[in-house]
Amino acid sequence: MGLDRPMRAFSLLLLAALMLVLGGQADATPTKAEPAKQGSRSERAAKSAHKRLDAKLKSKALAFGDEVFVRVFKEEAELELWLRHDERFELLKKLAVCAASGELGPKQRVGDEQVPEGFYAVPAGAMNPASNYHLSFNVGYPNAFDKQLGRTGSLIMIHGDCVSVGCIAMTNDGIEEIYSLADAAHKHGQKAFDVHVFPFRMTAENMKKHGASKWKTFWQNLKEGHDHFESKRVPPKVTIKNGRYVFSTP
Predict the structure, then answer these.
(1) What is the pTM of this model?
(2) How far is CA 248 from CA 9, 20, 125, 141, 229, in A?
(3) What are the residues whose beta carbons fall under 8 Å from the beta carbon of 128, sequence distance 6 or more?
(4) Which of 98, 134, 167, 196 is catalytic?
(5) Reading across the β-sheet that carries 118-123, which strands appear in turn?
């Protein structure tokens, strides 16, 4: 015999209540998909970078979102991270380059495993938060100067994971800091940040030390841009004339 109407209504009500309880428990149970909801790789990196950098930034009156400038010195295996403070840039910190292939001198062709030397710019579209090397950004090689000289190659990155074939590799902590500050600068209106790559620190002593190199004339031109920043503490406007870089105050 079937259930009478009161009993059937009570059974349906009980079943609905049971499904509601079980459904609520299911929603509260962590699932394998949940970690993705906790933030992207770049968001997690930014949180870590904030923890490491906030105190240092505060001590220098700097902040995430300030304009960024990067210099790299190949021989010394060192990267400098600068942020704008009012009308000038201030050095936030120096980071060791973890790995870089090749030797002193510019990149000239695909497959030479050289790190470029020159003046590059990184817009927001060149940032890669899903890099195979933790995080990365494309420095912009070949630039207009490189193209005039017929230099070939592409996808020269500054990235993490400490391995390099023509790129500039940092530790994962290092790239998180550089990437997160650059990403914040883009979001606060910096259209592109400059990356200047030099063969070595452009001192008179080092220029003399490497004076016999076939790249001497090229390096003297790079030194002009280096010295412009040293005197102004603002990255110069870079143009090209008669096969040379030309520098002026932006």
Answers:
(1) 0.84
(2) 85, 70, 26, 21, 10
(3) 135, 136, 137, 138, 157
(4) 167
(5) 88-96, 78-85, 68-73, 192-198, 118-123
230's enclosing H/E stretch is helix 216-232
pLDDT at res. 137: 98
Active site includes 159? yes
Catalytic residue, candidates 98, 134, 159, 196: 159
Strand partners, 241: 244
Q: Determine whether 241 is exposed, middle or buried from the number of CB atoms within 10 Å of its CB (0-12, 13-18, 19+).
A: exposed
Architecture of domain 41-199: Beta Barrel (2.40)
Known catalytic membership, residue 188: no
pLDDT digits (tens, 9 = 90+) for 17-28: 433 333 333 323
CA–CA separation, 63 and 72 (whole Å): 22
| Range in 22-26, 54-58, 94-98, 165-169 the model is least confident about | 22-26
